[in-house]
Amino acid sequence: MKILIINSYPEDSAEKLQRYVESISAFSQYVILRDSEIHAGIDLDGISACVLTGSPKMITEGEYSPDYVDFLCTTSLPILGICYGHQLLAIAWNGEVKSGERIQRVFLENPLVVTIRQPHPLFAGLAERIEVDEDHREYVVPPERGGGSFSVLAHSPSCEVEAIAHHSKPQYGTQFHLERSGGTGRRILGNFCRLAAAEEKRLSS
Fold first, then answer.
1. Whole-angstrom Cα distance, residue 127 to residue 186?
2. How far apart are CA 68 and CA 160, in angstroms?
3. How far is CA 5 from the centre of its chain?
4. Are the C-beta atoms of 67 and 40 separated by less than 8 Å?
5. SUPFAM superfamilies, from UniProt (predicted)?
6. Strand 49-52 to strand 2-7: parallel, antiparallel, or no bridges (unpaired)?
7. Could you list the active site residues?
8. What is the pLDDT of residues 42-101, one digit of tens each?
9. Could you tell me the domains of the chain?
10. What is the rounded CA–CA span in Å between residue 15 and residue 20?
């Protein structure tokens, strides 16, 4: 199994990217491409799934590549989008992203409590309420108000849409930073890798 990490961080953010590498390498091989390299026709032979990183870029200010969004609209690969990546998935799925006050909760100091709204394999083995790391200004609007072909899996007091799942594809997003959320984050990432492996097996059978 090999995961493509799609990196949306600036060049000087190696430490943040390293968190993803450390988390993913515990479950899978990986390769890294910058989001500027991604487009709908890209050859991803040998890639089992994609993880989309966070970013300081602002979607509401148009700071994203249309080619990247086209890829997200058309690919059937399993995807896990985190923070900025989660918001980009919502855009690709005809949802809406808005900007608000900055929410910053550090996992080791003052974690955010997120409530899982419905059972889902992405959260297998976790309690109904989990503690996570969160840092964002923009947020996904619930689909009943903003549209979009996705379901809301989790919410928190500060954000109505903490996790999403596409209606028909094995693609998911979390507003919180699971790569900075200790054992909880590792559990979610491991669950995603199992979902991706199951999808790969289904397609090859």
1. 14
2. 25
3. 11
4. yes
5. Class I glutamine amidotransferase-like
6. parallel
7. 83, 177, 179
8. 999 999 999 999 999 999 999 999 999 999 999 999 999 999 999 999 999 999 999 998
9. 2-204 (3.40.50.880)
10. 9
Report the C-alpha gap between 184 and 129 in whole angstroms. Answer: 11
Q: How far is CA 114 from CA 51, 53, 157, 179, 188, in A?
A: 21, 20, 8, 15, 13
What is each CA distance from 60 to 64, 83, 97, 155, in whole angstroms? 9, 14, 7, 21
Reference 188, options 157, 149, 162; nearest CA is 162
Crossing angle (nearest 10°) for helices 66-74 and 84-92: 70
User: What CA–CA distance (Å, rounded) separates 17 from 8?
Assistant: 9
Query: For 98-145, what is each residue's pLDDT tens digit?
Result: 999 888 888 878 899 999 998 999 999 999 999 999 999 999 999 988
Residues in the chain, total: 205
Contacts of 191 (CB under 8 A, 6+ apart): 121, 122, 123, 124, 125
Interatomic CA distance for residues 18 and 124, integer angstroms: 25
DSSP three-state, residue 122: helix
pLDDT in tens, 170-185: 999 999 999 999 999 9
